[in-house]
Design a protein that fits this description.
By secondary structure, this protein is of the alpha+beta class. It has helices at residues 16-25, 74-92, 147-150, 157-174, 179-189, and strands at residues 6-13, 32-39, 57-64, 97-99, 103-106, 109-121, 124-134, 194-201, 207-215, 221-224, 230-233, 237-240. It binds biotin (BTN).
Length: 244
Amino acid sequence: MPFQPKIQRLDSIDSTNLEALRQAKAGAPEGLCIVARTQTRCRGRLDRTWQSPPGAGLYMSLLLRPEFAMTAWPLITLMAALAVYESLMKTCDLRADIKWPNDILVDEKKICGILSEMIDTPSGHAIVLGIGINLRDADPELNATSIDAESQFPVTRREVIAAVHEELAINYERLPTQPSSITKEWSHRSSYFSGKEVSVDLGNGEAYTGTTCGLEESGALRVRLPDGSLKTVHAGDVTRLRKV
Ligand code: BTN
């Protein structure tokens, strides 16, 4: 069945991800989409927070119950980034970049963050895909930017939501049958795919620097270390090394 989001709009919630997780545990079907004007306990990747002032961002979480092999589930994170990338290009003519795995940047500043969380529910494993897109008033101190600051095109929150849903539906449908098309497209849209000098922080005390050199089939990032050895990053924080 094609992916059909069903939107629940809320004024304020602790976190749209938490709300989607709660409803998933209570049996909500695939396609549930929680959208809130503001969040009081928004969650980011690697236990970070994400600012959610009222109306300044698009805060949304979608529930997926993929029926394909779990080995392909890590690609959901990359396909979500592709969907946001395409929708920002189509609705606002924004030229963005994707920082592995799924930050969307414009001129090295973050415009969108994505947190995908896997959970166990009575009807099987599921994924909550949380997407935060800055619409306006992003904090430059946090190296963030917004659609309002970057685009000439007046776009509404509803238009952005519709575009993201449309692109997600396309990517989600082809993911199980053409997984390599997701990694291939991702690689064409990310300057982090290859030849980028980065530092990698695994969040467990291990960190190193190296040069990116492509993706594994699973979407993991390969990094060549200065001693020539190869590391594969499955989860962690990748940052571009700035020339001083
Ligand atoms: C990141 O750290 O880059 C990911 C940020 C994800 C924020 C979004 S906003 C909507 C959804 N609800 C949450 O609690 N987090 C995500």
